[in-house]
Amino acid sequence: MMALKRYLLALMREKRQTYNAIFTLTANALGLCLQGESKMNQRDAENILHDLFASLTNPAIPTENLASFFTRDYIQIVDGETLDLDGFLQHAATLRNALIRAEVSFEKIIAQDDTIADIHIVRAEKKNGDHIRVKVIAFYTLRDGRISRIEELTHLLDGKDEDRDLGSRIDVPE
């Protein structure tokens, strides 16, 4: 199973397959694993992701409070860019500064042991009035109930080319 997971992640990183083909392979592979015992059930996985994205998209929640979802050594790899926990918090602040609103809808969530795989769509309105829609495929690794790693690919479905990096963008203060 681990070899299959590494293979699928490699495909995702290299963008050799279409997003739907990758997810079909992933869903089939992880679905087979769900027939055995699992440390995390489906509802747990859904709750973790719903709570994370509800907090991330709620400007009333201070950005630093997002750290409670993650381990101290958290790493996120998005479209080949790597963020640590501080980088992710800067990224979250960048999103909040650029967007009026954002909502996340989940197409698929699969849980197995300490791993969650999902496909979600982000719909957002930027402060300049532009609208964007992004498809995200992500693998989350949990440790002690917190997210320790995320590997994800994003695909801009609607919006301007300049927003292709929105999944990892960090504004540098002037």
UniProtKB/TrEMBL annotation:
Start and end residues of each SnoaL-like domain: 64-149
Pfam families assigned: SnoaL_2
Descriptive protein name: SnoaL-like domain-containing protein
